[in-house]
Amino acid sequence: MNLPCPNCGVRPITEFLYGELTSVPDAITDADARDVDRAFMRNNPQGPQTERWFHVYGCRRWITLQRDTRTDEVL
Amino acid sequence: MNEFIEQRVSLTWQQPKKSYDVVIIGGGGHGLAAAYYLATRHGITNVAVLERSYIGGGNSGRNTTIIRSNYGIPEAVRFYQRSVDLYATLEAETDRWVMHKEKGMIGLAHSEANMRVEKARAAVNTAFGAKTDWIGPDEVKKMCPELDMTGGGHYPVVGAAYHHSGATARHDRVVWAFAEGAMKRGAHVHQRIEVTGLQIAGNRVTGVQTTQGDIAAGAVLCAVGGHVTSVAAMAGLRLPIRTHQLQAFVTNHYERTFAPILSSGPLLFYVSQTARGEMLMGAEIDRQPSYSYRSDYKFLQGCAFRAVTLLPFLRNLQVLRQWTGVCDMSPDYSPIMGQTGVEGFYITTGWGTWGFKAIPASGEQLAAAISTGKTPDLIAPFSLDRFALDRTMADRGSAGTH
Hints:
heterodimer; A: mainly beta; 4-stranded antiparallel beta sheet; 6 strands; B: alpha+beta; FAD/NAD(P)-binding domain; D-Amino Acid Oxidase, Chain A, domain 2; 8-stranded mixed beta sheet
């Protein structure tokens, strides 16, 4: 599997570290519940997900991309 | 028992009814075991197991079939030891040969720090009923003569924690034994029915919506692997779960007996021999969440490198098959079992890379929880609300990858 790095071109995934983006749903309003959600709960979507990757063995910059978690296709 | 004289598994398929006492979502090991123990231990047979594909076709068919209880925290050791004990008597109980074989498991230590961890593990295991001994390098070499004791020069073997009850069983046969046992007593197992929604009245689950119509239920157990976040969302629940890929592969057969299960924590690598003589090995999960069943060369390369570091003879074998399963990883590397806050909706998930070994105990304990309405002590520490209560069961070090 390869990822497109805007600085280095298409590079193998082994050069990157995965960085997660989390979000707490607006429906959760209680402050404590929001803290618990932020700390532990995950969206874990089946389909397109926006995520961050750190090109550790390359340009050493963070990149943002969309990947379909069902197929691992970068969108 | 012998494979050649045993009777074929008799599975009797029924038409789905409009209503059941208990509906179990997911016809893998965990779901079928729950149905089996509901029938045999609690006399509850008005049960349906709904499987969207075929039974055992998901992650029950994609694991590496290791059974062990050498975990790092007392609650986990007790729970998995229950599972080890149930596995040991499963053949006698179901009258089915599940190819259960006690082999022992060697957990290698490669450094001073590593040795302390493995010695502590041996102590906590033994204290809570899972016999584990610290053994020196000479004994390790005797048990596993193929091992390169220098670990390719980088991972010298300084000793190991030897877990006596480490075992393997045949995954399909375990699934079929539980399915047959449950069906024989009147439980229904439905293949090719997918749950599309849950019926909720107030804060209580009353049934499931499926691709073949609605089914009313007194209680619903979600025993899904991989798609659990979506099923929980149907009940309005958020889960602390990320789904990752885990890959494994087997070689062609090795002509000698490779007795124990061998595992190395620092190398994140483990290997065992299947009944056909194939060497079965795996490593760690892929870092990024994914639901894809596609396996890749990167994994094969990395895992094979670790394999030959410890066991140089593997260089002479060929890779036969490689496959991928998906694992529901919890933040503390422990499972999540029991009630969910939605009445009548039970869950068993967070089975990460340690689901197969837990099949009988998880089934038994959830059957008890469903039939009595009370969470048994054995699984109470693994409740879903432990995260909000700040009582996580952190056990990453012994979850390993198998």
